[in-house]
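ligand=S-adenosylmethionine
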Amino acid sequence: MYKRNDGLIKLPNLQLIDKYDRRLNYLRISITDRCNLRCTYCVSDDLHQRLPHKEILRHEEILRLVRIGARLGISKVRITGGEPLIRKGVYDFLSELTKIKGLADVSLTTNGILLRDNIEKIKSAGIKRINVSMDTLSRQKYKNITGHDMFDQVWEGIESAQREGFNPIKINVVALNGINDDELTDIAELSFSYPFHIRFIEYMPIGTSHINNTGKHLLAPEIQERIKVLGELIPVEKGINDGPAERYKFKGAQGEIGFIHALSKHFCNECNRLRLTASGKLRACLLSDSEEDLKGPLRRGCLDSELADVFLRAVSHKPHDHNLVCNQPVMVAGRMSAIGG
Ligand code: SAM
């Protein structure tokens, strides 16, 4: 297929294109399975399930894999977790990551707990876009959902990101019936006062989360209907680097509203994602346990070309679609925190 010589081999015009002709140029990386919150809807985070430290990819290992990915056409990277900002050395790692040739977009998903005190370091590292998960505007509910009384700290973190000029700041809101469904309008209303992109995410019934997976799920069309009391939602055209969110804007609003239809409208046909798990597995679909191991070959001293083969193999297994539906929890072998959401 291509000539192997040393680790710096050229990978001529190889692209990560799967058998359904989808070009995979987006790598989401979980850099740790540890988290400082215990969100009820995320996969359970029992201490005994945590990966031992030596099983987690080291920063330099991740950087090497990203360099290989970039030579195969990866141009967009998102750092996630677990909570990425609790990982030791993360800011130096981000600085190295954003220097990698070929990456047009490097972003971060965080729960925002550590944002306020570290926003300058994130900015200096070259990160321009962040997503902050915040499912409620109520301090008490925040505590109920996450297990920690940290709402104020997260909000201050979001404000400090705004002051530092991060744009857009996306606020990820998992829509949860009986938990935050009474707040959807208030949350959407933030887009009038702030330039934030509010993204309502349909809850994915992953089998091991702590919430009732058999109840009625709050789907994007219903959320859209409910928040229409704020005005007409005007569609926003998608940009070239956009993810699966359907984008809208209220007339006169500074920010936007997005919907991620994980259940109600599968976006698999436009999926451009690969995921690198904290333990060094390459996963072509969030909801399929088919994974290719990168850590083993990496630690055995394989050449870049051999690691590139692993990327190609993972891509060749990418399923056409997932079959996630309401009321039927799927069991995935990895935890959300290790896979990265
Ligand atoms: N700790 C970071 C955070 O809280 O944003 C990054 C990791 S978290 C696993 C990444 C994203 O996955 C978050 O926006 C979270 O809300 C989302 N997520 C986790 N479990 C989910 C589920 N069952 N359904 C939908 N989204 C989920």
